[in-house]
Amino acid sequence: MVYFCNRYEVKAKDGLESGGAYMKLLTESPQGIKFKEFSNETPYTIMFGPDRCGATDKVHFIFRHKNPITGVHEEKHLQSAPLSKLSKRTTLYTLIVNPDQTFEIKINGESAASGSLLEDFQPPVNPIKEIDDASDSKPANWVEEARIPDAKATKPEDWDEDAPATILDEKATKPTDWLEDEAAEIQPPLNLPLVT
Q: Compositionally biased, Basic and acidic residues: which spans (predicted)?
C-alpha cells in the first residue's frame, strides 16, 4: 500500500507562547521554486504542524485542493484539529494520508485525530448537495396555521353522540404507598375509549 507520511520533531526549549512550528510542503510548478522570492504567499500543497497564538493551540492540517471545474486552488482546513501538546521536551508530529482518502495525525506516536479528507475539512472538498437560497421567500398566499380543519370531514355512521368522552378504569387501584391523610381530592383515573 502506498501512502504519504510526514514526520518531524519540534523542541521549544524556552516554550512557545505565540508562534507556529508547522511545516509547508511547497507546490511544484513548471517554473520551479524561486527561493529568492520565497514568502508566506508561496503556494503550498500541505501545511501541517503545531501553532500557538493567544487562545489558539492546535495542530494545523491544511491542504490546497484544485477545483477540477474552475481550476482554482482552495485551502481545506481540518475542522477538529487536535491540541498541539507542545512542551519544552521534543514532540514528534506525524501526518499519514492513505490512498482511501483517510488521514491520521499522531503526536509522540499516539493517535490524536483521524478521519476523511472528503468529510472532515472546511470548506468541504465535495460541495454540499443543497444550499440555502437567501433570495427565497414564502408565497403571498402562504397559510401560517400548522393545522387546517378539513371542511369535507364527517363523523362515522356509527358515531354515538350520547357516549361519554371518557370512562372509568375499573382495574385501577391505589398505590401501596398512598397517603390517606393528604387533603387533596384526587379523581379516579380515566380510560379513553379506543377508536377502532
A: 147-157
DSSP 165: S
Contact (CB, 8 A) for 66 and 51: no
In the structure grid, which three cell numbers stand for residue 176, read together?
Answer: 401501596
Side chain identity at residue 79, one-letter code = Q
Q: How far apart are CA 157 and CA 72, in angstroms?
A: 69
**DSSP β-bridge partners for residue 51:** 20, 58
Q: Which three cell numbers stand for residue 169?
A: 378504569
Residue with cell 401560517: 144
Residue 134 lies in a domain: no
**pLDDT tens string 160-192:** 888 888 888 888 888 888 877 766 666 666 666
- Which cell goes with 117? 479528507
Answer whether 113's CB lies under 8 Å from 105's CB: yes
| pTM score of the predicted model | 0.61
- Counted domains in the chain: 1
Quick: pLDDT tens for 19-51.
788 888 888 877 777 777 777 888 889 999 998
**Structural domain includes residue 148:** no
Three-state SS at 27: coil
Contact 58, 64 (CB under 8 A): no
With residues binned 3-state (H G I as helix, E B as strand, rest as coil), the percentages for the chain, rounded to 5, are: 0, 35, 65
Provide the pLDDT for residue 63. 94
